[in-house]
Amino acid sequence: MPTERYFKKVPPFPSDVPVAKLPRLSYAKLLARDEAESVALFNASRGSGFFLVDFTTCPEGQKFLEHAERMFEINEQVNALEQDELMKYAYRPPHHLFGYKHVGNLKIEDGRPDRCEFYNIGQDDITGVSDPLPNPPLIENSRSEIKTYMEKAYEVLSLVCSHLETQLRLPQGTLVALQPQTRPSGTALRMLRYLPQPEQDRQTSLLGHTDIGSLTLLFNVLGGLQLLSPGADPKDNNSWVYAQPQPGCAIVNLGDAMVEWSAGILRSNMHRVTFAPGEQSKSTRYSLAYLIRPFGQAPMKRLAGGESLIPPLEEGEEDNKMTASEWESHKAVAIKAGRDNARSRGGREIKLDGKSDIVSGFTVGSVGASHTKKRNNCVLFADIYLLVESIIDAASSAAYGMMIHYTGNETGQIPGKIPNTWWEGGAMFMALIEYWYYTGDTTYNSEVSTGMQWQAGDGDYMPSNYSSYIGNDDQMFWGLAAMTAAELNFPEVSDGYSWLSLAQGVYNTQIERWDSEDCGGGMRWQIWNYESGFTMKNSISNGGLFQLAARLARYTNNDTYADWAEKIWDWSTTQLLVDTSTWAVADSVSISNNCSEPDHTRWTYNYGAYLMGAAYMYNYTNDSSTWLTPVNGLMNSTLSTFASATYNNTLTDIQCETSETCDNNEIIFKGLTAGWLAFTALIVPSTYTTIMPALKISAQSAAEACTGYSNNTCGVRWSIKSWDGWIGLEESMSTTNVFWANLIPYNMTSGPVTSTTGGNSTSNPTAGTDDSTGTSDTPRPITAGDRAGAGFITALFAGSVISGVYWLITSE
Ligand SMILES: O=C(O)CCC(=O)C(=O)O
Ligand SMILES: [Fe+2]
């Protein structure tokens, strides 16, 4: 389709719109290594990072155009498939970056949904470098043709690399070796379609971005692609000029990897897609992009040294020490104004034979006028596909910051046990399971499995080593972690307890402890009468069991659990632990005054525990309005109490944060709450538009609070939007939670499953019932110090950059 005869089928590109004058290089001359063509390629790569390659100039080129036409046919057919069929192969960042992206899946500058759809075919899939991925039969049947096209396109771009190597005076093969077709990478053939937009309602179809890989080879017939004029304001529509497709030519552009390798000599320019100009706007636009990304482990550092024109590090400059895949995820950070690596994004002057040499951007041609603009030194948006990756990156950095404090996986240590605390292990594993689910990062999975099984006791989280001082709430967190594992299909441990049975074990042992003798019911805080909280009935124990029962009801579709959930809810609201007129949640009541005086202590997680339970009941009862009122009431009171403007709309445990008196337990609360809010947004869809923006702001603030020691150390007080000097496992756990919670929008179709929607954890309805641990009231000696705060250990972890989230969230 990119040949003359296809151009004739559509209205001509109008002559009265400004266009970027891109140099048109002859493929024949490039093949013949024509010196002038090589220099022209280099100058275009420095100036605008965009040029045309004319394939009509030789038989090899014409052959390539035939292959491209065939891909255009496949493009039309693939995008013409029924939505339902395409959605079977949905591209699901963060887990799957290949497959079909539907219209509206990404956003444009102003937050509205995009108008671009595409099918991403992974190179590794097609060449056999990875296991095959599922694709529609149309693609499956065309594997060999697609493979040929990829090989040819790769050959063309390798030729481009070879010219760049010559001009940069790099040893031949240097750039090509960083992106071989034989090594795993994110390289893809993207088949894009843009339907015509109604005249009254037109907008950007694909958000302005730079390509994060190294080189892109793009064919299209209709206009629509626009480049940002160098130095211009991306918010001003006049700054964007069309790149006019030419018959028989591909548009080649450089991506960000080239900027890194060349220390800023080569240029990666902002571009976007909008409706086609003039009469063309009425036709459907197809384009075919072959996007090369370096192999995952490729170094991103500048290729200085030897004869190369690439300058060695200057004072104040730092080498990029990341691998390509690390760097892809971290790139978003470079955008934050004032950071070293954001200053030069291409077009850096070079020294040629002792003289400095600089190339301007591109010439803008329009009727009667032609002018050159300054080069663009400031890339304002990163590749759109990076949005997800930068949140993943933040989550991964926070999870790492958490796990460096964990020693349970070391020889001689106890799996699942965190010094000076037992319950936190459950909260930590819950965070790691969710982290795994939303990021796809399996790094900590074996720690999770081992620790969760090790602490399981007889299958109900009353392990004999700690059972003498475990409280109901402590045990509950492990139960909720196991429930989460079941709902997210965390891999089962073949010779261990099933996740579901562990959750059932906790539930069964706890309902046994329901205390009808005092205050008409309720769970006590403590199990043992020698513990000081034995005479108290608190929200987290009751709200936790309420939540667990609701989740078990939904997972197993068994009303017995739901009945218990209702019973706990009724008791909690009657006792005003949950006040259904104000939706305030107290921390506890005391048996000493017949539970008549709920306290005024406000903790995020008490709200969150009940909110999550109500959300599950709403979902379980098929959206019954009875449960919607509590869901909305608790959601609103959570946000207005803990994320008000006073706290920069950022989740704050108001009880301790301003006074800087939060203990290690308390530091974890708001992260747990963030996670429960996120699940609520998923299973009660009407809450989504309230919850997600709130979670975004919290994550943005948290990212800014994770700037300690220049190594992403996270503090406690997110709301002050800077690091507060605190550090520890708990701080990092909370930020891990708020970051994965922000990945929910990218994984909307899944989330917590049930036994009838893909959950396969084995049920054991009587789990824990034959375990007498925890039902005896014989006093046992307490092991000292379990509730004492852990000392703060200095974390030193390097490399990643959480503040990327700041940009990410503000840019959406
Ligand atoms: O459709 C086009 O012309 C451009 C697509 C693009 O920029 C991309 O996929 O990165
Ligand atoms: Fe692009």
Automatic annotation (TrEMBL):
Subcellular location per the Swiss-Prot or TrEMBL entry: Endomembrane system
Entries under Pfam families matching the protein: 2OG-FeII_Oxy, DIOX_N, Glyco_hydro_76
One BP annotation, GO: small molecule biosynthetic process
Gene Ontology CC: endomembrane system
Name of protein: mannan endo-1,6-alpha-mannosidase
Enzyme class, spelled out: hydrolase
Entry keywords, A to Z: Glycoprotein, Glycosidase, Hydrolase, Membrane, Signal, Transmembrane, Transmembrane helix
Gene3D superfamilies named among the record's database cross-references: 1.50.10.20, B-lactam Antibiotic, Isopenicillin N Synthase, Chain
Keyword set includes Zinc-finger: no
